[in-house]
C-alpha cells in the first residue's frame, strides 16, 4: 500500500499539470529549432563547401579551413583585439554592478531608489544603433558635445580624438560598454543581496560593526557565490564578442584596433562568401570558450568556491 501510495500522486501530477508540460513544448521547440538544429552546420567547417552541392554533397577536406583561416594576416590581429577588449571590459566592468547593487541596497528613499534603478537598467534595452548615434553626437572630434564644451571653456586646446585614435577609442569603447551593461548586472547582484538573512546585519550591528564593515563582512560574503558564477561565465566569453558594438563604434581610422573575430568572420563569411572558413573560425571560438570556462570552473572549485557544475 505504501509503494502504491507513493506512485499514485506522481501519476496524477502528470495529468493535473498537463498544461504546464504543454507550455514547456514551446521553449523546447524554440531551442531545438534555432539552437541545436543549426549545430549540424558545423560540418561545413571541415568541407570545401559548395552551396550548389549542399552540405552533404561537398568534399571533405579535414582541418584545411582551420589552417588557412588562422594563417590569414588579419586573424592574429583580430584574435588579440578580441581578447584585449574583452579583458578591458572584464577588469573595468565586472566590479561596477557589485558596487551599484550595494549602493542601491543601502538607499533609504524608495522613490530615489526606483528612479536610480530605472536609469541604470534603461541602457541595457537600447540597441547599439541608438547607442552608436549617441556616442557619435557626444564624442565626435568636431561636433561632439564633450569636445565642444571643453574647447569653449578653454580646458583643452585641441579636440580629444575619442573615436579616431587607438587608445582613446579603446577607452571610449570600454566605458560605453560598462555603461550599457552595468544595469543588468546590478539586477542580479541586488537580487542576491535581498536574499541575505537580515539577522546577520542585526548581529553585526550589535557587535559594533559600522556600515562599511557590514558590507565587507556580511554583504560581500553573502553574494560571493553569485560573484564567482558570473565571473566564470564572463571568463568563458573572452573569445566571443558581439558584432554590432565594434562594427558601429569602429571606423577606418581605428581599423587595427576595432577589428575583432566577429567582424573578421563577417568579412570572411558574408563579404567574401567563404562560409566554410567562417564556420571554422566560429567553431574555434566556441572550443576555446569551452576550455576557458572549464578552466575557470576548475580553479574555482579547487579554491573552495561553488562552480557552475
Summarize the SSE layout with pairings.
Blueprint lengths: L1 H15 L1 H19 L10 E2 L10 E2 L3 H7 L2 H21 L1 H12 L3 H12 L6 H12 L5 H9 L12 H29 L3 H9 L4 H12 L1 H13 L7 H6 L5 H4 L2 H11 L3 H28 L7
Antiparallel strand pairs: 1-2
Helix pairs in contact: 3-16, 4-9, 4-15, 5-9, 6-9, 10-11, 12-16, 15-16
Number of beta strands: 2
CATH class of the largest domain: Mainly Alpha
Head-to-tail CA distance between termini? 38 Å
- Decide which structural class fits the backbone: mainly alpha
CATH level 3 topology of the largest domain: MetI-like fold
Form type: globular
Question: Helical region count?
Answer: 16
Task: Tell me what the structure shows.
The protein has 309 residues and is mainly alpha-helical. It has 2 domains: 1-62, no CATH class; 72-302, MetI-like (MetI-like fold), CATH 1.10.3720.10. It has 16 helices and 2 strands. It has helices spanning 2-16, 18-36, 64-70, 73-93, 95-106, 110-121, 128-139, 145-153, 166-194, 198-206, 211-222, 224-236, 244-249, 255-258, 261-271, 275-302; strands spanning 47-48, 59-60. α4 (73-93) packs across α15 (261-271) and α10 packs antiparallel against α11.
In short:
This protein is mainly alpha-helical and 309 residues long. The protein has 16 helices and two strands.
